[in-house]
Write a structure and sequence with these properties.
mainly alpha, 21 helices, globular
C-alpha cells in the first residue's frame, strides 16, 4: 500500500491523454509512417493501418493501460502481482522484463535520431538549406562520429532533464505545452505542402486506396507500424496506466489517443508525400527512399522551394517536438521500472539510465563511422537495436500481454477494471481480438520480420 500511495500520478484525464498521445506521436509518425506509406501503396496502406489501429491497436492499448491501472506498477512488478506464492512463474517474469527492457534499449538509439534532427534544425537556422540538399551530406554527417555524438548528447541530456523533474512537473507539463504546438505546426506544413504545384497527385496517392498497390507485405508492414506508432509493447502504457485514477474513462481515453495519433500520422503523410510528388512528379525511386526520405529527399524538396529555409525550420521543429515527447515516454518507463525494482530514488534511476544511454547511444551514433567495424548480423549497431526491439522483442512482449490476460488475469477481472469508469462498448471486439486475432497477427509480424532479415522474403 505504501508504494501505491507514494507513486507519482497525472493530474487528471487531460494530463494522461496528452502524455499518452505524446508517447504515441513521435518519430514513428513523422519519420517512419510517411516513408512506409509511400513505399507500400499510399492509400491502401493508410486504409489497412486505420482498420488495424481501431481493432488490434485498440485492444492492446486497453489491455496494457488497464493492467497498469489495476496494479499501480510498471511492467515487471505488474506481472509479478499475478504470480502465485511459492511457485516459479517463469512466464510472468519473462513477460514483465521483456516489456521493461524494450524502452531501455530503444531510448538510446532513438536519442541518436533525435540528435540528427537537432543537427538539421541547426543547419536550417543558420541558412544552410542548399548544403543539406547536396548528395552525400547525410552520409557524411552520420559517418562523422564527433558531430553525431555531440548532437546525440544534446538530445539525451535535454530528455533526461525533463524526466528528472518528475511526472507532473516534467512529463505532463512538457506534453501539455508541446502537443498543441505540434498540432498547429503539422497543419501549417501540411497545408503548405498540398498547395504546391503538382502536389495534388501526391494527395490522391496517399488518401485514395488503390487495390493494384496491395500486397501481403502491405498488411504486415502496416501492422508493424501500428505497433511502433501506438507505443504498444514498450511498457509505456503499463507505466502511464499506473499513474491514473479509477475515474479516468479508459475506453474514451484510448479512442482519443488513437484518433490523435492517426491524425498526426495522416498530417505527416500530407506534409511529406505531396511534397515529394511536387518535387519529382511521383518518381518511384523517391517514393521508395525508405528511412532516408526525411533526411535526404525532403531537404532536396525544401531546397527547390522559394521559402525552403523557412519550411525546413518549421518542419524540423515539428519533428524535434515529436521526438522529445516520445523519448520522455520511453525514458519515464525505464526510470519507473528501476524505481520499482531497485527501490532507488528518481535521481539515482535517472543517473543509471544516463549511463545506459551513453553506452548504447554512443555505439549507435558512431556505428556508421569510427565504430562501423562492429556489425551484428550484418547490421550497424543502431539498425540492430531497431530490429531487435521492434521486430523481435515487441511482438513477444505483446504476446505476453495477451497470454497474461487470457491465462492468468481472466477476462472477467480485466473487464471489471475497465468498467469502473468506462461503458466498454467494444467489449466483445476486445475479447475476440485478444484471444484469437491478436496472437495470430503478432506471430505473423515476428516471423515475417525475422524472415526478412534472413533474406527469405523481401520487405
Amino acid at each position: 500500500m505504501e508504494q501505491k500511495q507514494n507513486r507519482s500520478s497525472f493530474s487528471g484525464k487531460l494530463g494522461f491523454v496528452l502524455s499518452a498521445a505524446g508517447a504515441s506521436v513521435g518519430l514513428g509518425n513523422i519519420w517512419r509512417f510517411p516513408y512506409l506509406a509511400a513505399k507500400y501503396g499510399g492509400g491502401i496502406f493508410l486504409l489497412i493501418y486505420i482498420v488495424l489501429a481501431l481493432t488490434f491497436g485498440y485492444t492492446m492499448i486497453m489491455a496494457e493501460t488497464a493492467l497498469g491501472r489495476m496494479t499501480h506498477k510498471s511492467p515487471v512488478s505488474a506481472y509479478g502481482t499475478f504470480a502465485k506464492p511459492g511457485k516459479k512463474n517463469g512466464f510472468l517474469g519473462f513477460g514483465g522484463w521483456i516489456n521493461a527492457i524494450i524502452p531501455v534499449l530503444i531510448v538510446p538509439y532513438y536519442s541518436v535520431i533525435g540528435g540528427w534532427v537537432i543537427k538539421y534544425l541547426f543547419e536550417y537556422l543558420r541558412g544552410n538549406a542548399q548544403g543539406l540538399a547536396e548528395d552525400g551530406y547525410f552520409s557524411a554527417f552520420i559517418a562523422d562520429g564527433a558531430s553525431a555524438e555531440v548532437c546525440f548528447l544534446l538530445f539525451a541530456f535535454f530528455t533526461l532533464g525533463i524526466i528528472f523533474a518528475g511526472v507532473r512537473n516534467g512529463v505532463e507539463r512538457v506534453s501539455r505545452l508541446m502537443m498543441p504546438v505540434l498540432v498547429v505546426l503539422s497543419v501549417i506544413i501540411a497545408v503548405y505542402s498540398v498547395t504546391r504545384p503538382g502536389a495534388l497527385a501526391g494527395v490522391a496517392y496517399f488518401l485514395v486506396p488503390n487495390p493494384a498497390n496491395f500486397s501481403w507485405m502491405t498488411v504486415v508492414t502496416a501492422m508493424g507500424q501500428m505497433f511502433y506508432s501506438l507505443s504498444i509493447a514498450m511498457g509505456i502504457l503499463y507505466t502511464y496506466g499506473s499513474y491514473i485514477g479509477k475515474d479516468v474513462d479508459l475506453e474514451k481515453s484510448t479512442t482519443q489517443v488513437e484518433i490523435f495519433d492517426t491524425a498526426i500520422a495522416m498530417l505527416a503523410g500530407l506534409m511529406i508525400i505531396p511534397a515529394v510528388f511536387a518535387f519529382s512528379g511521383g518518381n518511384p525511386d523517391d517514393l521508395q527512399a525508405g528511412p532516408s526520405l526525411m533526411f535526404i529527399t525532403l531537404p532536396k524538396v525544401f531546397a527547390s522551394m522559394g521559402v525552403g529555409r523557412l519550411a525546413g525550420i518549421l518542419f524540423f521543429i515539428l519533428v524535434l517536438l515529436a521526438a522529445v515527447t516520445s523519448a520522455i515516454s520511453l525514458l519515464e518507463t525505464s526510470v519507473s521500472t528501476f524505481q520499482d525494482e531497485l527501490h532507488w530514488s528518481r535521481p539515482k534511476c535517472c543517473i543509471l539510465m544516463a549511463a545506459v544511454m551513453l553506452i548504447i547511444g554512443t555505439l549507435s551514433s558512431m556505428g556508421y563511422g569510427v565504430l562501423s567495424f562492429i556489425q551484428i548480423f550484418g547490421m550497424a549497431c543502431l539498425d540492430f537495436f531497431d530490429f531487435l526491439t521492434n521486430s523481435v522483442m515487441m511482438p513477444l512482449a505483446a504476446l505476453a500481454t495477451c497470454f497474461l490476460i487470457v491465462r492468468t488475469v481472466g477476462f472477467d477481472k480485466i473487464a471489471r477494471e475497465i468498467e469502473q469508469s468506462s461503458a466498454f462498448k467494444r467489449k466483445k471486439l476486445y475479447m475476440f481480438f485478444l484471444k484469437y486475432l491478436a496472437p495470430i497477427f503478432l506471430v505473423i509480424i515476428l516471423l515475417s520480420s525475422i524472415a526478412n532479415v534472413l533474406g527469405i522474403i523481401s520487405m
